[in-house]
Specification:
Main location: membrane
Number of domains: 8
Number of strands: 68
Keywords: Calcium, Cell adhesion, Cell membrane, Glycoprotein, Membrane, Repeat, Signal, Transmembrane, Transmembrane helix
GO molecular function, one term: calcium ion binding
Helix content: under 10%
Shape: elongated
Structural class: mainly beta
Strand content: 35-45%
Strand order of the largest sheet: 4-10-9-6
Largest sheet: 4 strands, mixed
Distance between the termini: 129 Å
InterPro entries: Cadherin-like_dom (IPR002126), Cadherin-like_sf (IPR015919), Cadherin_CS (IPR020894), Cadherin_N (IPR013164), Protocadherin/Cadherin-CA (IPR050174)
CATH architecture of the largest domain: Sandwich
Radius of gyration: 60 Å
CATH topology of the largest domain: Immunoglobulin-like
GO cellular component, one term: plasma membrane
Number of helices: 10
Length: 961
């Protein structure tokens, strides 16, 4: 793998999500004066040069990831990379509560990053961390002012025990409540020491027994003093022995806990067996503070030797999943004295961190160092443990050693999430005005595992309103992903899921609540568009008129509504600001004024406030002495017969009552008697609705009475008449009355008949009205080559040109009868026309036997000679029947397409003696015709214009009558 060229002043490492989107980031140049690299925050644009990671075709994606990570770790460890804080504040300890430290907005020059408008929306909050010192400070959420906490003083010795430098790291999130601005600021609070603690010995006095035969110079350990203060001036600086001219002296190493009493002269038990000296421990303060240890020395032959560890220091390695009680190692110390003075006991030094004391234990007798806590959750890779050994003499000697314990990563631990909600309420808040990308929480995730087990990825699942966005290494921002509306969803529960990249991934999750802060984005809304009330004249002042109400969907002060009157009320009314109850503040006379209008204003308490107004109409009521009056006596309306139930009929009925209040409130209803059985109903507002189906052909006109009544006591009323005409719709087909339905018309026409002479008349009617009931006749299908036509309006069938012997034949005409509605309704009939030679020419039946009619109407068989016709009278129409003939028998062919006639006779057929033979299923005619029918063997009724033909045929007809 070859890397892009770079110089020695830069350090590069690879961040590889996968093989396709790996990137090399060139960091800021290293400072010349330090081994650490300086990373401005935020990095300037010129420091963010990004180039693609070099491809590695021979390695799969996981290998590339491992190489990149190894390169990263090597780079960081080899260069001792540390990230400097954005701000460092140095303060002395013991500051009083709420002492100002600094202002983050000013000290980070935020005005260079955000506009003046956005500056006012910034919110400042501490980010949670593993070691949190946030309780020691107070951060103003709105201004960014940093101060000491409200309670207690900041004691450096309590916060940073045993530490030379007391630097308290803090992380502050600065976010906008409306837009996407978010910045994390790292703070170091350097707490400097003041000389408020004198050096102190663990005990006030001690006893040492020294043999008179001790060699000079010999030394014996003393318990050293401890000064909680630090620094070259305030910490322990020197020891002094008082008196200084005796056989003893003091030996100590600056910065070391080793303090020893030195024997400078030979001792003689017989000369002096006891001594008392004072050891003064003094710091370097001005003035210096000191502590005193009284040492009582007995010259004898006891406990001459101190315990000595076999090793100057020890080291051990422990697995992170080691169980409580697991033995790390055993420290060993020996004492050359005999008896109790030579018996050694072990303990952990109390002058070390509580984390060590809670994580490990040492066996008093054996010196075995064991695990006492949960190392996996200790979050440390190395521990320095101070173990002390003491003999059991009356005045014991004590020595110490150091054990270095390294924790080995052996198991895949689940990630640990730290959620900073950017508020101190246990939940996050965000304005409903917040733009997309606005930050609601900060997520820090840590996984102490190494390799794949320590690679963590986080996400938010199944939530439309919020999403997770990477911010820094193992840090995320929870951002707004969808527009918020407090009035729709006031709270959201957001769950962040994190999982490592182990073979069997371990997961962790954290759920927090986001409360949407209300903005004054809703105006108050009155419950009614207008308030109309009435009061009787001469009402007493202070009478309650009406209570107006307005609702505001916002919360808090944004939704708190107060009421006031517009100046147009002219002081004649008063309103309660909190309840909206309106009362009179004047007298009212109906004869002087009938009503009074004024405006009520509802205003919320938002900043800026929003308002709404409503009109209040107050009617002054009078006695009920005028009845309602309809606008007219008769209300004519029309409605289509096809209108469905529920259709409104015409315009609303109106009736006026010039009185006020209930006396002038009119309701309209139908007279129950006159509307009974009619498909209409009248609503109180005067609207008429159809309640059933209409049929123009059945009933085309309705009327009923309506009553207008006021609500006075007693009520007065007026009446009017409603007339409703039903409009016809083209909902009926024409009815062909001749030829009747199921009949076939056969016309016999002589070739001698005149042009345009009617040979038949079709009859049809339509129960609809107007154009819907006007019928027209149209030939739609024919085989006569235009020899005949039909009058479109009258239905007369006539000859269109002179006929010759060549025209003698049988023809079929299909006649369409339709109305003129839109769309038109149709009906059809078929005519069969038989053109014969005429002029008395006899046509033998054999000439026309088995003549076939086109159109599938059936075969017509004619034979024999037709007889004469008789006349009968039925009503106003003439019906004709055969008075004599050889035979005219009708045989049904089955079906309604037509019939076949079989005329059986031995006589010749005289076509001029009959115009046509129309088949019919019934015999109609006069009494005489019925009698004639009985005289003949068979009879065919000829209906309507049954004899139509040549002049000679008409004469024959008259003669026959």
């Amino acid at each position: 793998m070859s890397w892009p060229a770079h110089d020695d002043s830069t350090q590069r490492f690879c961040l590889c999500a996968d093989a396709d989107d790996a990137e090399v980031i060139e960091w800021w140049p290293r400072r010349a004066t330090t081994t650490a690299m300086d990373f401005p925050s935020p990095l300037p644009q010129q420091a963010r040069r990004v180039t693609p990671c070099p491809p590695s075709p021979r390695r799969p994606a996981p290998s590339l990831i491992c190489i990149c990570l190894a390169f990263l770790m090597t780079s960081l460890i080899g260069s001792q990379v540390t990230l400097a804080a954005d701000l460092v504040y140095t303060i002395p300890e013991e500051l009083p509560p709420l002492e100002h430290i600094g202002n983050l907005a000013q000290d980070t020059d935020l005005n260079q990053y955000v506009s003046a408008d956005s500056f006012t929306t910034l919110r400042y909050s501490f980010l949670a961390g593993e070691t949190s010192f946030t309780s020691l400070f107070r951060l103003d959420e709105a201004t960014g002012d940093l101060a000491t906490a409200a309670t207690g003083r900041l004691d450096r010795e309590s916060v940073c025990p045993f530490l030379k430098d007391c630097v308290l790291p803090l992380q502050v999130a600065i976010q906008s409540t409306l837009n996407q601005f978010f910045r994390k600021v790292s703070l170091d609070i350097n707490v400097t020491d003041i000389n408020d603690n004198p050096p102190a010995f663990p005990v006030n006095s001690t006893v040492i027994v020294i043999s008179e035969s001790v060699q000079v110079p010999s030394s014996f350990p003393l318990t050293s003093a401890l000064d909680k203060d630090t620094g070259p001036d305030n910490s322990l600086k020197e020891y002094q022995l008082v008196p200084a001219d005796g056989p003893f002296g003091i030996s100590f190493t600056p910065g070391s806990p080793n303090l020893r009493l030195v024997v400078r002269e030979e001792l003689d038990h017989e000369s002096q067996s006891r001594y008392q000296v004072q050891v003064l421990a003094r710091d370097g303060g001005r003035p210096p503070l000191q502590g005193v240890l009284v040492v009582n020395i007995t010259v004898g032959d006891e406990n001459d030797n101190e315990p000595k560890f076999t090793e100057a220091s020890y080291s051990a390695i422990v697995d992170e999943d080691a169980a409580v009680g697991h033995v790390l190692l055993a420290v060993t110390a020996t004492d050359r004295d005999g008896g109790p003075n030579g018996q050694v006991r072990y303990r952990l030094s109390s002058q070390q961190s509580q984390n060590v004391l809670s994580m490990f234990a040492v066996d008093e007798a054996t010196g075995q160092l064991t695990v006492a806590g949960d190392i996996e959750n200790g979050d440390q890779e190395h521990y320095e443990i101070v173990v002390e050994a003491s003999d059991m003499g009356a005045q014991p000697f004590t020595t110490s050693t150091t054990v270095t314990v390294t924790v080995r990563d052996t198991i895949n631990s689940a990630p640990k999430l730290t959620v900073s909600l950017l508020t101190g309420n246990g939940y996050s808040t965000i304005s409903e005005y917040a733009s997309l990308g606005a930050v609601v929480a900060h997520i820090a995730v840590k996984d102490g595992d190494r390799g794949r087990n320590g690679i963590v990825q986080c996400e938010i699942r199944h939530h439309d309103y919020f999403d997770l966005q990477g911010f820094d290494v193992n840090e995320y921002k929870v951002i707004v992903a969808k527009a918020l509306n407090r009035e729709t969803v006031p709270t959201h529960n957001v769950t962040v899921f994190c999982s490592d990249a182990g073979v069997r991934p371990l997961t962790a999750s954290a759920t927090f609540e986001v409360r949407v802060l209300d903005e004054n984005d809703n105006s108050p809304q009155f419950l009614l568009p207008e308030y109309t009330v009435s009061i009787p004249e001469n009402s007493m002042e202070g009478r309650s008129v009406v209570r107006v109400q307005a609702k505001d969907a916002d919360a808090g002060l944004n939704g708190k509504v107060r009421y006031s009157l517009h100046p147009d009320a002219r002081g004649r009314f008063l309103i309660a600001p909190e309840t909206g109850v309106i009362r009179t503040h004047d007298d009212f006379d109906y004869e002087r004024e009938k009503s009074f209008n004024f405006t009520v204003i509802a205003t919320d308490r938002g900043d800026p406030p929003r308002s709404d107004s409503v009109r209040v109409v107050v009617f002054i009521t009078d006695v009920n002495d005028q009845k309602p009056s309809f606008a007219r006596d008769v209300f004519p309306f029309t409605i289509s017969e096809s209108a469905p139930p529920g259709t409104r009929v015409g315009s609303r009925l109106t009736a006026n009552d010039f009185e006020t209040g209930l006396n002038g409130q009119v309701e309209i209803f139908a007279d129950r008697v006159s509307i009974r059985g009619k498909p209409f109903e009248v609503h109180p507002n005067g609207t008429i609705y159809l309640t059933g189906r209409l049929d123009y052909e059945s009933v085309n006109y309705y009327y009923f009475r309506v009553i207008a009544s006021d609500r006075g006591t007693p009520p007065l009323n007026d009446t009017a008449e409603v007339q409703i005409s039903v409009l016809d719709e083209n909902d009926n087909r024409p009815r062909i009355t001749f030829p009747a339905n199921g009949s076939e018309l056969v016309l016999f026409v002589s070739m001698d008949d005149d042009i345009a002479k009617p040979v038949a008349m079709l009859k049809a009617d339509d129960p609809d009205s107007g154009l819907n009931g006007q019928v027209q006749f149209i030939i739609t299908s024919r085989n006569d080559s235009g020899r005949f036509d039909v009058d479109a309006n009258s239905g007369e069938v006539f000859i269109t040109r002179s006929l010759t012997r060549n025209d003698v034949n049988t023809y079929r005409l299909q006649v369409l009868v339709q109305d003129t509605g839109s769309p038109p309704q149709p009906a059809e009939r078929t005519l069969t026309v038989w053109i014969h030679a005429g002029n008395g020419t006899r046509v033998k039946a054999d000439n026309i036997h088995n003549e076939s009619v086109d159109g599938g109407l059936g075969e017509k068989e004619y034979g024999g000679d037709f007889g004469t016709f008789g006349k009968g009278v039925a009503g106003e129409e003439e019906d004709f029947g055969f008075t004599s003939m050889g035979g005219c028998k009708m045989e049904g062919m089955g079906g309604s397409a037509g019939h076949s006639f079989n005329m059986s006779s031995s006589d010749d057929f005289k076509p001029h003696s009959v115009s046509r033979c129309l088949s019919h299923r019934s015999i109609v005619g006069s009494e005489n015709m019925q009698r004639k029918r009985r005289d003949i063997s068979e009879f065919i009724a000829i209906q309507h214009l049954s004899i139509v033909g040549s002049e000679n045929m008409q004469r024959k007809r008259r003669d026959s009558l």
